[in-house]
Design brief:
Helix content: 40-55%
Strand content: 5-15%
Number of strands: 15
Distance between the termini: 33 Å
Largest sheet: 5 strands, parallel
Radius of gyration: 30 Å
Number of helices: 19
Structural class: alpha/beta
Length: 580
RNA sequence: GCGCCCAUAGCUCAACCGGAUAGAGCAACGGCCUUCUAAGCCGUAGGUUGGGGGUUCGAUUCCCUCUGGGCGCGCCA
C-alpha cells in the first residue's frame, strides 16, 4: 500500500536526478505515519534526508520534489510542512482498495515474503526435564511460538527445536530423588530426612509410584549401605555421594531404568503441556544423543586442532579470551567429565551443519554471560558466529498480590504452567505473555490474572471479532443480504471508516516490523488498537442500515476488520471466537 | 570491582531501525443500554521521558557520565 505513494515519489526523485539536482546522492525512501491527521496519511522526510547531500535547503528541495510528482489516482494532494516534510493525503479509493485486498486475501492478508524461504533454527524453552514447566517457562514458550508463527508468515522456513538436557548432573539428582521416594512408597523409611538438595516436588512421588508399580521391590536392595547424608554438611556433596552409591549398587541397567523413569515421564508431561498450549516443536534434541554420537569429542578435537585449547590444573580449557570472552572456559573437568558448555559448543556447531542460515536462541536473561563464550566457540570452530542470534527473555516475577512467589524447582515451590493455563485459559495466558517486550521484566500477579482475568485485553480483541460475526448473524436473521465479492465500497466516505481502513493497511507493516525486531508484542498492541477502533465505530455508527449499498459496504469493512483480527490472533496462538 | 539489561502519567506498559503537539489500559471523577452483544462507548484529569552533558535541522530513541533497580561473573545447569 505504501506503493501508492512510494512509486510516484521515486519517479519524482529520478526525474530530479536526471535534471542534475541530486547528483551523487543515494536515494532512500522513508515514510512515517504522522501522529497528527493534519499531517496527512503518509509523510516523507526525504527532502530532509537528501537536502544536505544536494546542497539545498530542505524546504526548497521539497518544493522541487512536489513539482516533479506525477499525477496519481490514489493521491488527493501533497503538502509541504514544517522543516520540509512532504505530507501525502490519499483519496478514499486508496482505502477502499485496502479493504478489498483484505477480503480478497482472507487468511493470507498480511502474509509476505521477506524471508525468501530462508531456513531458520529457533530454539526456545529447553528447560531441564527435572520437573514440570512453571510460569516462568511459559513466557519463553509463548514468545518463541509466536515469533515462529510471525516469521513463517513473513516467508521464513522456521524449524523449532527443544534442547533436552538429559545428560547432566541435574538428571542424576532427579534419579536419586525418585529413588528415595520409591523407597518411601515401597514402605521403607529413610534413615534421615529427605535431603534439601534433592527434588522435593510432589511430582517426584508420582514418578516413584509408577516406578514401584513397574519394578516392585526389585530396586530396594540398593538402599543397603547408603551414605549417611545426615553426616555430610554440604548438601551438594551429600547428593553426589548418594548418586555415586546408587550408580554403583544398582548397576548400569537398573540405574538406567531409574534415570529414564524420571526423564521420560517429565518429558512427556512437558511435551503435552506445550502442545496443549499451542507450542509445537519440529524436533526434540537430546543432549545425551549428542554425546553418544561423539559430537562433543569431535567438536573438542576440532578446537584442539585449531590450537584453541590447553591443559591446566588437570582440566582441558578453551581459550575463549582469544575471541573476546572475559575468561577461558573449561571443556573437560579434572575428573574427565565434559562440562555443560562442552555439549553446548557441540550442539551449536552441529546446528550450523544442518543447513540453517540463521540460529536464534531464546535464553533466560540470567544466561546472558553465556553469549560471548558460545560465540567464541563458533568462531574458533570456523563457523559463522554472526549466524547466531541470542534473544534474552527477562524473568517473569511472580506475585500473589504484593507478595513475591518463590520459584524453586528443587523445593517444588512453584506455580506450574499447567495450573496457570487451567486458571486463566490458554488464550489469556498466551496473550498476556507476549504483551510486553522480552527485555522488560514481566510482573505476573497471580491474583490479578485469576480474579480479574476478564480484564485481560485478549477479551477486548476477541469481543470485537465476535461482534462482527454477530452482525452477520443478525443480518441473516432479518433476511438481509451479505456482501459479495468484490465489494462495492464507494459509499464508505465517512472519515472514521477511512481511518479504520488505514489501520488495516498497517497490519502487514506491523507484521514485518514484529518479525524484523523479533517482537511479538507489536502484534498484540496493534490488535488492541484495531479492536479499539472498531468498538468506537460500532458504538457510533449503525451498520445494519436499511439502505443495501451502505449496509453491504459497512459489513465489508467489518468483515475486513474481523479477518485482520483473526489473522493477528492466529500469529499469537490465540483463538478468534465468533460468539462470546 | 567488571559485564549485560532496564528506568516514560499514581500503577502496568506503548511510541513504527532519530521526526512534527509522547499515547493506551488500570485506578479516580462525570456521562451513554425499550434499535446491530455495556466483556462496549464518550468525556475530564494525569508528564521537565531518573539527573546532567554531547551529536543533529530535530533525541524517549544515538554517545558519555552520574543515580537507582534486575541479572551474571563455577571444573553448576
Amino acid at each position: 500500500m505504501k506503493n501508492f505513494v512510494a512509486e510516484p515519489l521515486l519517479l519524482a526523485l529520478q526525474a530530479l536526478q536526471q535534471q542534475g539536482l541530486l547528483q551523487g546522492v543515494p536515494i532512500q525512501l522513508d515514510f512515517d505515519r504522522p501522529r497528527q491527521p493534519e499531517h496527512g496519511h503518509l509523510a516523507s522526510n526525504v527532502a530532509l534526508l537528501l537536502a544536505k547531500g544536494a546542497g539545498k535547503k530542505p524546504r526548497d528541495l521539497a518544493t522541487s520534489i512536489l513539482g516533479a510528482l506525477p499525477e496519481s489516482p490514489w493521491i488527493e494532494r501533497v503538502e509541504i510542512a514544517g522543516p520540509g516534510f512532504l505530507n501525502f493525503f490519499l483519496r478514499p479509493a486508496a482505502f477502499h482498495a485496502v479493504i478489498a485486498q483484505v477480503l480478497g486475501q482472507g487468511r493470507d492478508f498480511g502474509r509476505q515474503n521477506l524471508g525468501g524461504g530462508l531456513r531458520l533454527h529457533l530454539e526456545f524453552v529447553s528447560a531441564n526435564p527435572t520437573g514440570p514447566l512453571h510460569v516462568g517457562h511459559g513466557r519463553g514458550a509463548a514468545y518463541g511460538a509466536s515469533l515462529a508463527e510471525i516469521l513463517r508468515f513473513c516467508g521464513y522456513d522456521v524449524f523449532c527445536e527443544y534442547y533436552v538436557n538429559d545428560a547432566g548432573r541435574q538428571m542424576d539428582i532427579l534419579a536419586a530423588s525418585v529413588y528415595l521416594r520409591y523407597l518411601e512408597a515401597a514402605g521403607h523409611g529413610l534413615p534421615w530426612d529427605f535431603p534439601q538438595s534433592a527434588y522435593r516436588g510432589e511430582y517426584v512421588r508420582e514418578i516413584a509410584a509408577h516406578l514401584l508399580a513397574r519394578e516392585g521391590d526389585a530396586l530396594v536392595f540398593a538402599s543397603k549401605n547408603m551414605p549417611d547424608l545426615a553426616a555430610i554438611a554440604d548438601g551438594d556433596a551429600a547428593i553426589d555421594q548418594l548418586i555415586a552409591h546408587l550408580k554403583d549398587a544398582l548397576g548400569a541397567a537398573a540405574y538406567g531404568r531409574l534415570h529414564a523413569a524420571g526423564l521420560q515421564e517429565i518429558l512427556a508431561d512437558i511435551r503435552d503441556d506445550l502442545a496443549e498450549f499451542g507450542v509445537v516443536y519440529q524436533n526434540w534434541y537430546s543432549e545425551r544423543s549428542l554425546m553418544e554420537q561423539g559430537a562433543v569429542e569431535r567438536a573438542i578435537a576440532r578446537l584442539e586442532e585449531g590450537g584453541h585449547c590447553y591443559r591446566a590444573e588437570g582440566a582441558l580449557w578453551f581459550r575463549s579470551t582469544d575471541f573476546g570472552d572475559d575468561k577461558d572456559r573449561v571443556l573437560q573437568r579434572e575428573n574427565g567429565a565434559y562440562t555443560y558448555f562442552a555439549s553446548d559448543v557441540a550442539y551449536h556447531f552441529e546446528k550450523g551443519t544442518r543447513g540453517f542460515s540463521q540460529l536464534i536462541d531464546m535464553w533466560g536473561a540470567d544466561h546472558h554471560g553465556y553469549i560471548p563464550r558460545v560465540r567464541a566457540s563458533l568462531q574458533a570452530l570456523g563457523a559463522d558466529a554472526n549466524a547466531l542470534e541470542v534473544l534474552l527473555v527477562q524473568f517473569a516475577i511472580l506475585y500473589r498480590g504484593t507478595e513475591k512467589v518463590s520459584m524453586s524447582t528443587r523445593a517444588g515451590e512453584f506455580v506450574t504452567l499447567r495450573q496457570l493455563r487451567e486458571e486463566v485459559g490458554n488464550d489469556a495466558a498466551r496473550f498476556f505473555y507476549v504483551l510486553r517486550r522480552a527485555d522488560q521484566h514481566l510482573d505476573f500477579d497471580l491474583e490479578l490474572a485469576t480474579k480479574h482475568s476478564e480484564e485481560n485485553p485478549v477479551f477486548y480483541i476477541q469481543y470485537a471479532h465476535a461482534r462482527v460475526h454477530s452482525l452477520r448473524r443478525q443480518a441473516l436473521e432479518r433476511g438481509l443480504s451479505l456482501p459479495t465479492q468484490p465489494p462495492d465500497l464507494a459509499c464508505l466516505t465517512d472519515p472514521r471508516e477511512l481511518e479504520l481502513a488505514d489501520r488495516l493497511w498497517r497490519f502487514p507493516e506491523q507484521v514485518a516490523s514484529a518479525a524484523r525486531d523479533r517482537e511479538p508484542h507489536q502484534i498484540a498492541f496493534y490488535l488492541k488498537d484495531l479492536a479499539a477502533g472498531f468498538h468506537t465505530y460500532y458504538n457510533a455508527t449503525r451498520i445494519l442500515v436499511e439502505e443495501d449499498a451502505l449496509r453491504l459496504a459497512r459489513l465489508s469493512l467489518a468483515d475486513a476488520i474481523a479477518q485482520t483480527l483473526a489473522n493477528g490472533l492466529a500469529l499469537l496462538g490465540v483463538s478468534a471466537p465468533e460468539t462470546m
